[in-house]
Specification:
By secondary structure, this protein is of the alpha+beta class. It is built from eight helices and 18 strands. The chain is elongated.
Length: 282
């Protein structure tokens, strides 16, 4: 995007206080019997069931709550439907009557082509993004967020439920950049409207930055946005009377398409995974 682009200033993040509490009173050392130690260890090891499912690569935490409420998850042979249930060390958890075996965390970056549906399984879809990575890994990964069928570009797939929840949650405002090809050249005034904000049926939304991609062909516009609402970029331009002919996501949460051809995928390297997790777990 050109240097003359309009850019919105982001509010400074509040720094977290990393200092410990001062003035803690020293407590007497208690004697714990062996059986009490075992019980204490089991309590400490317990985690919420939705997190257990997410960590095992079954789904995200939010989707896990849906599955739990639907009664397809059991612990030690008993169906569990209560949200907030915890799983302890040694418990046998089953999903659709199949035992859950925790998987290695896997992270895949895909450059999605047009006409592929972002879903795990759709009997009505001719092509899904899962077809593109078939046999690429033994772990059961799933898409983080969605790109509609006609949209191309970056899509992350993983079995790390905690990270998937963090990246896709609206409050975390992960940065996305799209290259948009329009049916007609947008005016400077309309680009300014995108920057100032437009009101859609589900509320107002603003571009953080917007500009022409190429001064010789102003049909192409680059737009930076943090909103993850459904089809939000298309709807913003349609609101102003433009038809989006092509929409390509070229940047997502710090990841780019560099050296990744359309329709191809690769595993994230350790530095990229660490970069994504810094925000999620800091």
């Amino acid at each position: 995007m050109e240097r003359q682009s309009r850019r919105r200033e982001e509010p400074a993040r509040k720094s977290k206080n990393t200092k410990g509490f001062e003035g803690k009173r020293k407590t007497e050392r208690a004697t714990v019997k062996p059986k009490e130690k075992q019980a204490l260890k089991k309590t400490t090891d317990e985690i919420r069931l939705n997190r257990y499912l997410a960590n095992a690569g079954i789904c995200s935490r939010r989707d896990a709550d849906t599955y739990i409420a639907a009664g397809v998850v059991s612990i030690n042979g008993k169906v569990v439907t209560e949200l907030g249930t915890k799983v302890g060390y040694g418990d046998i958890v089953k999903f659709n009557d199949a035992p859950i075996i925790p998987e290695k965390k896997t992270y895949i970056l895909l450059n999605k082509p047009k006409d592929y549906v972002t879903t795990l399984d759709d009997p009505h879809a001719k092509n899904t993004v899962m077809d593109l990575i078939r046999n690429g890994c033994k772990e059961r990964v799933y898409p983080v967020g969605r790109l509609d069928k006609a949209t191309t570009g970056l899509l992350l797939l993983t079995n790390d439920g905690d990270l998937a929840d963090y990246l896709s949650h609206p409050r975390n405002n992960k940065k996305k950049i799209y290259q948009v090809t329009l049916d007609k050249i947008p005016s400077e005034a309309d680009l300014q409207k995108l920057y100032d904000g437009v009101v859609l049926e589900d509320g107002s939304v603003k571009a953080d930055e917007v500009s022409y991609c190429n001064p010789d062909d102003k049909h192409e516009v680059g737009i930076e946005i943090h909103s993850g609402r459904n089809r939000v970029v298309r709807r913003m331009f349609e609101y102003l009377g433009y038809k989006v002919k092509k929409l390509d996501r070229v940047y997502y949460a710090g990841l780019t398409k560099k050296n990744l051809p359309r329709g191809k995928w690769r595993f994230l390297d350790d530095k990229e995974v660490a970069m994504l997790k810094r925000g999620a777990y800091s």
